[in-house]
Amino acid sequence: MKARFGGFVPTMGAVVVALGLLVGVTGCANKESSELVVYSARIEALIKPIFDRYTAETGQKIRFVTDDAGPLIERLNAEGANSQADILLTVDAGELWHAADRGLLKPIQSDVLNANIPESLRDPQGRWFGFSIRARTIVYSTERVKPEDLSDYAALAEPRWKGKLCLRTSKKVYNQSLVAMLIAEHGEPKTEEIVRGWVANLAAEPFSNDTLLMEAIAAGQCDVGLVNTYYFGRLVRDQPDLPIKLFWADQAGQGVHINISGAGVTAHSPRAEAAQKFLEWLSQPEAQQFFAGQNLEYAASPSIEPDPIVKAWGDFKRSPMNVVQAGELQAQAVKLMDRVGYR
Ligand code: FE
Q1: Scanning 112, 291, 295, 320, which has the fewest C-beta atoms within 10 Å of its C-beta?
Q2: In angstroms, rounded to a whole number, what is the distance separating the alpha carbons of residues 63 and 48?
Q3: Residue 29 has pLDDT above 80, yes or no
Q4: Ligand 1 centroid to residue 268 C-alpha, Å
């Protein structure tokens, strides 16, 4: 994905940073501008509607740049105190953890955020908060697998699934965070055994995205896999007859592993007060429902009804572990996946 800012579409990496610095990010905004600036790893289609709604309700204008979290974090770092950005929004807890770890996010104390966002979905130091929950669970072929055959993530390493498992690439942060959470839950030796077992069971080279993986299951290339539920929702919304179904992993144990899409106020935010106000608004029930519903996710704030499509998948037990561990253990997870040959 390329960075987008209005009609300005630069190339990746260092060039993004350099150009960003040269044009002062917005090309026109300055430190005195009242427009909020958001760096977002969540795609435009999912965030513009929420920004538009906020502007309509409050009059607060919002500009945004979208790109992958890595380049956005590098850009924030390179811009330093000159950055125009007020908010960093990502689709993975590990990314927010990295940004916070590098001192790029400002700790904020907000009774509203602390009340609306559960403790396990936010940074203990208040540098970032989860605003939607993404569940990563098992998907299976209804033609070749019975739900009774399934249980937890570890069981997919058993020899019975040899040649039947499909996974997305280990380069994707979702899998890095999942493995990090497995390390937090089981310890490193046991997690290594699990991931080694997964690799031994692969039916095909890891896929570049969750949708291709599910299409491979539907086409008979493999029988089971791991996906974020909203990709399942999007796929079956378009093709309701696909012979695949979700299975809630580890319901007798820790529960389904979850991640967040979340945000924090940047360390050098020129409009930190307005930025905090926006995040507080995002934690309120109506905004929560809208933000999560846009992408068929679950709201971070409890007792918000999911979209009817999502609700139809039924309730499930979620892992109560703090998502901060996805960040803390991510480097360890990446090394582990590399060691066992998970590409
Ligand atoms: Fe995604």
Answers
A1: 320
A2: 9
A3: no
A4: 28
pLDDT grade, residue 323 (50/70/90)? very high
- Residues of the chain by 3-state class (helix, strand, coil), percent to 5: 45, 15, 40
Task: Establish if 21 belongs to a structural domain.
Answer: yes
Query: How many Å lie between the centroid of ligand 1 and the Cα of residue 32?
Result: 35
Element (H, E) at 180: helix 173-186
* Range 245-265 average pLDDT: 97
Residue 114 resides in a domain: yes
% of the chain residues with pLDDT over 70? 91
Residue located via tokens 């203990």: 124
Tokens of 85: 């950005």
According to DSSP, the β-strands at 257-265 and 224-228 are: unpaired
State the distance from the centre of ligand 1 to the C-alpha of 34, rounded, in angstroms. Answer: 31
The stretch 303-315 carries a mean pLDDT of 95
What value does the mean pLDDT of the chain take? 92
Say if residue 50 is in the same domain as residue 147: no
pTM beyond 0.85, yes or no:
yes
Q: Taking 70 as the threshold, does the pLDDT of residue 5 lie above it? A: no
Report CA(209)–ligand 1 centroid distance (Å): 9
Number of domains the chain is built from: 2
Residues 126 and 196 occupy one common structural domain: no
Distance 263 CA to ligand 1 centre (A): 15
- Kindly give the distance from the C-alpha atom of residue 91 to the centroid of ligand 1, in angstroms, as a whole number: 7
Name the residue range of residue 63's domain: 14-132+260-306
Q: Do 127 and 142 sit in the same domain of this protein? A: no
Q: What is the CATH number of the domain that holds 24?
A: 3.40.190.10
